[in-house]
């Protein structure tokens, strides 16, 4: 790659040395020592000392570097100092150039990070063909073979996230950067992240894809600081083609890690490299995350994975049953069992899938048909945990907080829109999340008639279908109440 700066026009014959170049390696050694005092020992050891002098000819001072990133960094941060000191030593340097060394041991283009840095170091020393094809994984990446697009069940709550992930996985020009996926536990964020990585591996094996959790990013950052290998850390993360960071909320409140993440993010986006992030909340809702990072994360497409609805949960269970049939061919499932589970276990897909796995295992061990009675018996603890009751008081309080209205106004006869709409939302949620009847809900919310509650529920259902903001408000409130 070429830098912005190096000519040795005007150099005396003696300065060309034995090789006929405008600067000898000994000359560079003297300049380098001068630079040590100017940039400090840490910067000298990290950047200047590792430059390999190649030539100085026709105004161009050329160095060999290990990575493009290193050349860019030196050019931006120390180029003018190198140019000035070269001129002082008798060479009129107009620009610097940096050539990336060819090294058979260099990191292959297609690689991913392991949570274990030692294992990663060993794997990176192996040829790409051996490490990639031997185990079918991205190098060292903790990717789950089950998490592909084929195994992802698409429904209304996750269709946008799925479509956006598919688009990114197709590769090619970056459409939106970053892609930010967020949602509660067990809604499919990690599944989609892994699916993107698998698809990229299949479509473009030459790409260097890095997938890791925010916790692993922090761990590697701390280790690089401790071992004084920050240049290697920066080179590794800023030379990738696709960076995928899971659970980014983990770095909230960790200032040094956030700072490095911020600069890494900017460097990749500036190069047109794809960044994919996931979290349990939207960027603006992550407490302890710096405002500049929140702003950057909202540059691209922010997609919410909504809580699963009944139809999606049932679809997930039906797909899992098809997978299990190959292992438990002799087992039969009575009518209504899957519907029962989809209805009762509503807040976490992982718990839902785990319940089905336990049910199949239990039925296999005791040699019984999978019935509603068996499900109730073998899953009693899971069903109890899923039976958390949402109260009317919680619904009214959360709704008031969400819309910034007073409880007294919600219960009052006031009909202004800023009061009436939250009141209707509270009635709708009460009908959806509790076993209360229409008259009971009306009585609790200001002593209203049951017909008022029926009208409110129908009104909110109509608005949800045509007003995306109302739909998002309802889903967010539901998630807050069911958490």
Radius of gyration: 30 Å
Helical proportion, percent range: 40-55%
Helix/strand order, N-terminal first: HHEEHEHHHEHEHHEHEHEHHHHHHHHHHH
* Proportion of strand residues: 5-15%
Number of strands: 8
* Spatial ordering of strands, largest sheet: 5-6-7-4-8
Structural class label: alpha/beta
Query: Helical segment tally?
Result: 22
Textual characterization of the structure:
With 483 residues, this protein is α/β, with parallel strands linked by helices. Helices cover 54% and strands 9% of the residues. It contains 22 helices and 8 strands. The protein has helices spanning 25-39, 41-48, 68-88, 117-124, 128-135, 159-169, 189-203, 214-226, 230-238, 255-270, 291-297, 310-325, 337-344, 349-366, 372-378, 380-385, 392-403, 407-411, 417-433, 438-444, 450-466, 468-482; strands spanning 52-57, 60-65, 95-100, 179-182, 209-213, 242-246, 274-279, 301-304. Strands 5-6-7-4-8 form a 5-stranded parallel β-sheet, sandwiched between helices. Strands 1-2-3 form a 3-stranded mixed β-sheet, with helices on one face. Strand 6 (242-246), helix 10 and strand 7 form a beta-alpha-beta unit. Helix 1 packs across helix 3, helix 19 packs across helix 21 and helix 20 packs across helix 21 (450-466). The chain is elongated, with a radius of gyration of 30 Å. Residues 1-21 and 103-141 have low confidence and may be disordered.
């Amino acid at each position: 790659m070429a830098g912005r700066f190096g000519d040795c026009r005007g150099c005396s014959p003696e300065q060309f040395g034995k090789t006929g170049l405008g600067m000898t390696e000994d000359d560079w050694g003297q300049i380098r020592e001068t630079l040590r005092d100017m940039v400090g020992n840490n910067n000298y050891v990290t950047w200047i000392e590792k430059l390999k002098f190649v030539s100085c000819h026709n105004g161009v001072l050329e160095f060999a570097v290990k990575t493009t990133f290193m050349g860019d960094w030196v050019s931006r941060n120390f180029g003018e100092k190198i140019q000035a000191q070269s001129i002082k030593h008798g060479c009129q340097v107009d620009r610097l150039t940096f050539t990336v060394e060819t090294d058979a041991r260099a990191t292959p283009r297609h690689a991913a990070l392991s949570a274990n840095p030692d294992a990663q170091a060993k794997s990176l020393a192996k040829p790409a063909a051996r490490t990639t094809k031997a185990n079918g994984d991205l190098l060292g990446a903790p990717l789950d073979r089950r998490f592909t697009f084929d195994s992802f069940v698409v429904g209304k709550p996750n269709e946008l996230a799925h479509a956006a992930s598919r688009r990114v996985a197709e590769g090619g020009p970056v459409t939106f950067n970053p892609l930010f996926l967020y949602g509660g536990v067990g809604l499919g964020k990690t599944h989609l992240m892994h699916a993107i990585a698998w698809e990229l591996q299949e479509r473009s094996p030459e790409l260097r894809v890095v997938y890791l959790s925010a916790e692993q990013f922090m761990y590697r950052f701390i280790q690089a600081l401790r071992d004084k290998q920050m240049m290697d850390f920066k080179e590794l993360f800023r030379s990738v083609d696709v960076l995928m960071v899971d659970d980014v909320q983990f770095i909230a409140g960790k200032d040094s890690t956030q700072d490095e993440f911020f600069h890494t993010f900017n460097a990749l986006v500036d190069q047109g490299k794809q960044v994919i992030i996931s979290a349990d909340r939207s960027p603006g809702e992550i407490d302890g995350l710096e405002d500049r990072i929140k702003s950057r994360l909202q540059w691209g497409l922010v997609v919410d994975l909504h809580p699963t609805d009944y139809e999606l949960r049932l679809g997930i269970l039906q797909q899992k049953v098809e997978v299990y049939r190959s292992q438990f061919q002799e087992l039969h499932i009575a009518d209504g069992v899957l519907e029962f589970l989809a209805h009762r276990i509503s807040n976490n897909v992982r718990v839902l899938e785990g319940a089905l796995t336990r049910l199949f295992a239990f039925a296999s061990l005791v040699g019984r048909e999978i019935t509603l009675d068996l499900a109730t018996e073998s899953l009693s603890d899971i069903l109890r945990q899923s039976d958390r009751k949402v109260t009317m008081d919680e619904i009214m309080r959360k709704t008031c907080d969400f819309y910034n209205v007073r409880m007294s106004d919600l219960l009052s006869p006031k009909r202004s829109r800023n009061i009436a709409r939250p009141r209707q939302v509270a009635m709708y949620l009460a009908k959806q999340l509790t076993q209360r009847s229409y008259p009971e809900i009306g009585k609790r919310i200001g002593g209203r008639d049951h017909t008022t509650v029926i009208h409110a529920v129908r009104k909110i259902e109509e608005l949800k279908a045509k007003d995306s903001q109302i739909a998002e408000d309802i889903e967010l409130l539901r998630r807050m109440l069911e958490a």
